[in-house]
Write a structure and sequence with these properties.
This protein is mostly helical. About 80% of the residues lie in helices and about 5% in strands. The protein contains 20 helices and 4 strands. The chain has helices at about 1-15, 35-50, 55, 60-65, 80-90, 95-105, 110-135, 150-160, 170-200, 205-220, 225-250, 255-270, 270-295, 300-305, 315-340, 345, 350-365, 365-400, 405-420, 425-470, and strands at about 20-25, 30-35, 135-140, 145. The strands form 2 sheets. Strands 1-2 form a two-stranded antiparallel ribbon. A two-stranded antiparallel ribbon has the order 3-4. Helix 7 (about 110-135) runs antiparallel to helix 15 (about 315-340), helix 8 (about 150-160) crosses helix 20 (about 425-470) and helix 9 runs antiparallel to helix 18 (about 365-400). The longest helix is centred in the C-terminal third of the chain and has 45 residues, at about 425-470.
């Protein structure tokens, strides 16, 4: 056991620790981790290669989202439903704790760099989601389609070996296994966060909150095709409620809004804030938890993207790029504005959920504390249900198409959910961080050389757009 803990710590430090440091004026240093070194340049590369797709094709993203759904084969889900599943997992702890941590460390300027990071991540999300669509397979168990990085990695390796590849690709196996490890770790984080928030807000013992959370989760995830139907209803409602409450708070504090925007941009472009508020706080602090939030580059969302039954692969890419926008530009910004319109003296010295709950209490009294506890419960619950949807394709790749392996993984995840609600085990949480870090490494290794396929699909779709407009 000690060897496993030490090995996990070593890999964790390699992925998330400082790979090297950059000296800063005044004698300080800025540490750059391996994952930041992979994610940010990759995002910039794809943004340039797609010719700034998040901005250029944003109207088309909206059009694809609201277009009439066509008839689908069997139990296949639509591209929009795939977006809802991926949004369920993106909209979680990173939208609450991650944003609070970024602002606490880097000030208001961190928000601007958070927006920039989202724009860069949108291009990466487009590439990996389109690849997932191009290499998806029929799902004999659940019906419809399945896929994701394990499948397009397998295709990539098979092509490089000129078709000489057996049942498994080592790289694809490593990705799939990392994903399953990651999602078990996240299950513990989810349950612990929910039980802690309910104990603070309602003085409810963690055991009661945990039992209810596990029971509700089990009813949904152990049924064959209940996941998408539940998330179809839950995700739009919870996101809309959070957005509406934020608009109300902004309306109540409209006079301070110009000063908030002035602080965001002034601190973002000041020398100190660019270092501390931008890359020091948002990228170095925000990427760790923010990666759980928008997931761009980690390979999680493509597991849902592959299941979408759309008329063109690039449509799914556009939908998932919009998902990053919804997560960061909309939902994360909601959290940021709730904090930034709160008088500084009300939240001085506070961190994490205490800071966010204090802000809400200032604006809405005890209702604000209750609301944040409930919205955290919804965010976390939908995340758990969503990650088990992701797990389907990875379990199938590793263990074949059988109900036994699918059910055993769900039971394992539910057990981790239960344990996490009662106590925080830092080793398991670190294991989750290691899992998502390894997923990102294995995914980026492949999407960079495979990106030409996604770019070709984008160009083909843009021809169809032009033909539609000219027709």
């Amino acid at each position: 056991m000690k060897f496993i803990v030490n090995a996990t710590t070593a890999v964790y430090n390699l992925l998330w620790g400082d790979l090297f440091t950059v000296p800063l004026p005044g004698g300080g240093t800025l540490g750059i981790s391996l994952l930041v070194l992979l994610l940010i340049p990759t995002g910039i590369f794809f943004t340039i290669r797609t010719r700034f797709l998040p901005i250029r094709l944003f109207p088309e993203m909206i059009r694809v989202t609201v277009e009439k759904r066509t008839n689908r084969e069997g139990n296949a889900i639509s591209g929009v439903q795939a977006l809802i599943v991926s949004t369920a997992t993106r909209v979680g702890m990173g939208n609450l704790i991650g944003v609070v941590a970024a602002i606490s460390a880097g000030g208001a300027g961190a928000v601007f760099w958070m927006w920039i990071t989202a724009l860069i991540g949108s291009s990466t999300a487009f590439i990996e989601a389109t690849l997932a669509q191009l290499h998806k397979e029929k799902d004999p168990l659940y019906g419809g389609w399945r896929g994701g990085p394990a499948y397009y990695i397998h295709s990539f390796v098979k092509e490089k070996r000129r078709g000489k590849l057996g049942r498994y690709s080592i790289l694809a196996v490593l990705f799939a296994a990392s994903g399953l490890i990651c999602w078990c770790g996240i299950s513990q984080v989810i349950a612990n966060s929910v039980s802690s928030a309910f104990e603070n807000a309602f003085h409810i013992e963690p055991i009661y909150t945990t039992v209810i959370l596990v029971a509700l989760s089990a009813v949904i995830v152990l049924r064959k095709n209940a996941t998408v139907r539940v998330l179809d209803v839950l995700v739009p409602i919870m996101a809309a409620c959070y957005f509406i409450i934020t608009l109300i708070l902004i309306g109540m504090n409209i006079t301070v809004l110009p000063d908030v925007f002035r602080r965001i941009f002034a601190e973002a472009f000041g020398v100190r804030q660019v270092v501390a508020g931008g890359f020091g706080a948002v990228i170095m602090n925000g990427v760790k938890r923010g990666l759980f939030s928008n997931e761009a580059g980690s390979g999680s969302a493509p597991c849902a993207a592959a299941a979408g039954d759309t008329s063109h692969p690039a449509k799914t890419g556009l939908l998932q790029a919009l998902g990053v926008f919804i997560d960061t530009i909309v939902i994360c910004s909601c959290t940021a504005f709730i904090i930034l319109v709160t008088p500084a003296e009300k939240i001085t010295g506070l961190e994490g959920m205490d800071l966010l709950q204090a802000s809400m209490q200032h604006h809405l009294g005890q209702f604000g504390v209750v609301f944040i506890a409930l919205i955290l419960w919804l965010f976390s619950f939908s995340t758990f249900v969503g990650i088990l949807f992701y797990a389907r394709s990875n379990v199938a790749y590793l263990f074949g198409d059988n109900w036994l392996s699918q059910t055993l993984y769900k039971v394992l995840a539910l057990a981790m959910l239960f344990v996490g609600g009662l106590a925080a085990y830092t080793f398991v949480w670190d294991l989750g961080d290691v899992g998502v870090g390894l997923m990102t490494v294995f995914n980026i290794i492949v999407i960079l050389p495979m990106s030409g396929q996604a770019l070709a699909s984008m160009k083909d779709y843009e021809k169809a757009i032009k033909a539609r407009r000219n027709g």
